[in-house]
């Protein structure tokens, strides 16, 4: 369960398209088809990937609050390959709320989808308190940069990192 929470939180941080520490999946491996159907690509009105997130219920996606300032238009769910998106995978954003002032301690935002999504949400731990260990491993996934100063990947990648 700890791994699922760690994975979710790190993906929110690491899925931004900016080339900053953690904004890329360097040497990542391709995510197998169907492995992470709840992984969301937040896209601009031109269909370009902007940020990542996760489906947490049939109508809500959690992402980073700093993504709110971009030109978000839709969410794509159910594919690891952004070059093969059809309109059944695309959900318009009905509501976009960030209850926090953006800083790195409260960088969360909920997006409400325009219609329910039939996919299963990300499995989150039910424990009220989870303690991260200093040398714990976390999986990171996203459509970030796959090499330094390289292009963004259209297929999602994942890597394992020590925290």
From TrEMBL:
Residues 25-163 form the Peptidase S1 domain. It comes from Mugilogobius chulae. One of its GO terms (biological process) is proteolysis. SMART domains: Tryp_SPc. This is Peptidase S1 domain-containing protein. Keywords: Disulfide bond, Signal. The keyword Signal applies. Coiled coil: none annotated. It comes from the Eukaryota. InterPro entries: Peptidase_S1_PA, Peptidase_S1_PA_chymotrypsin, Peptidase_S1A, Trypsin_dom, TRYPSIN_HIS. The keyword Signal applies.
């Amino acid at each position: 369960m700890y791994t699922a929470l760690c994975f979710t939180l790190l993906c929110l941080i690491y899925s931004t398209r900016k080339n900053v520490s953690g904004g890329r999946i360097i040497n990542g491996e391709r995510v197998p088809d169907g492995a992470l159907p709840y992984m969301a690509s937040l896209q601009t009105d031109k269909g370009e990937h902007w940020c990542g997130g996760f489906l947490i219920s049939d109508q809500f996606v959690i992402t980073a609050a700093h993504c709110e300032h971009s030109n978000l238009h839709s969410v794509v769910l159910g594919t690891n390959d952004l070059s093969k998106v059809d309109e059944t995978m695309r959900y318009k954003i009905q509501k976009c709320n960030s209850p926090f002032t953006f800083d790195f301690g409260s960088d969360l935002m909920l997006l409400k989808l325009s219609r329910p999504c039939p996919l299963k949400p990300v499995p989150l731990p039910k424990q009220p308190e989870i303690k991260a260990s200093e040398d714990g491993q976390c999986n990171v996934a996203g459509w970030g940069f796959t090499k330094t100063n390289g292009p963004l990947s259209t297929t999602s990648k994942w890597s394992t990192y020590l925290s």
